[in-house]
């Protein structure tokens, strides 16, 4: 219990620090389109000369943090215990009676997969909160118990449909649990999140001999091909039902 509580505290502190880093990076003087600031700060905008100085100061801070990050990764390489945060299937993340361990793996594995994706794909403009993965896991358990039961009880011929529906619910909850989830700017989060959910769905249906990188590349290409269809499903009155139909087609053709 204490270990779980301390992990939650650490995760939330890291999310706040990431938000600060994102704000500093957005305030750089050489940012395309000029420094960006929160809308609430617009009425208090400083004179142009001061803003340029602040932008250059933000650039210096960002460059310093980038150098420190690079040096720390070189001198202190990240060591992961256990299975090196490989992706798992939904039957592992949502196993009966193992909510704490399943939540920890879900948060760790999917966030690690997001961080490992190319920055162009993951998008620096959308810093995802690690705590959001824990919130999404809890939301799936609380709001979609019927889908979880259906997945665990599904017969072989109905398993793909059950897994696709659970993947759709998981994707919707992941989007809902991230900052600015009501903003249109969250749409690009489709790129890094949908492939991870589909990869976990594939691993639920059958063990894959592919590496996580190859699996995510395959699901990423499939997601890109259906991007407009998925966005329409998200905007529909029943996003989980519509996404489930899209995911069923994708899972039927993915390795």
What tags apply to this protein structure?
single chain; 255 residues; mainly alpha; 68% helix
Summarize the structure.
This protein has 12 helices and no strands. It is an all-alpha fold and 255 residues long.
Description:
With 255 residues, this protein is mostly helical. The chain is 68% helix and 0% strand. The protein is built from twelve helices and no strands. Helix 4 packs across helix 6 and helix 8 runs antiparallel to helix 9. About 4% of the residues have low confidence.
N- and C-termini, Cα separation: 39 Å
Report the uncertain regions.
75-83
| SSE ordering | HHHHHHHHHHHH
In percent, how helical is the residue content? 55-70%
Number of helices: 12
Largest sheet: none
Q: β content, as a range?
A: under 5%
Structural class: mainly alpha
Q: Globular, elongated, flat, extended or rod-shaped: what is the shape?
A: globular
């Amino acid at each position: 219990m204490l270990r779980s509580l301390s992990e939650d505290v650490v995760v939330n502190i890291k999310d706040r620090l990431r938000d600060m880093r994102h704000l500093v990076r957005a305030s750089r003087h050489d940012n395309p389109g000029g420094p960006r600031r929160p809308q609430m700060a617009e009425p208090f905008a400083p004179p142009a000369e001061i803003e340029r100085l602040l932008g250059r100061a933000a650039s210096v801070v960002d460059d310093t943090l980038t150098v420190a990050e690079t040096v720390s990764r070189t001198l202190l390489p990240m060591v992961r215990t256990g299975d090196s945060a490989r992706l798992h299937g939904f039957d592992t993340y949502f196993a009966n009676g193992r909510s704490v361990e399943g939540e920890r793996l879900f948060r760790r594995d999917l966030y690690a997969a997001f961080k490992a994706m190319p920055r162009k794909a993951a998008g620096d403009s959308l810093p995802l909160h690690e705590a959001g993965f824990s919130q999404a896991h809890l939301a799936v358990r609380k709001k979609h118990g019927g889908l979880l039961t259906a997945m665990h009880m599904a017969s072989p011929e109905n398993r793909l449909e059950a897994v696709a529906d659970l993947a759709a619910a998981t994707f919707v909850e992941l989007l809902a649990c991230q900052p600015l989830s009501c903003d249109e700017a969250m749409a690009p989060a489709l790129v890094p999140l949908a492939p991870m959910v589909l990869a976990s769905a594939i691993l639920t249906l059958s063990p894959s001999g592919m590496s996580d990188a190859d699996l995510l590349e395959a699901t990423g290409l499939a997601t890109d091909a259906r991007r407009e269809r998925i966005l329409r499903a998200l905007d529909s009155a029943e996003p989980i039902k519509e996404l489930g139909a899209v995911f069923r087609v994708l899972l039927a053709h993915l390795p």
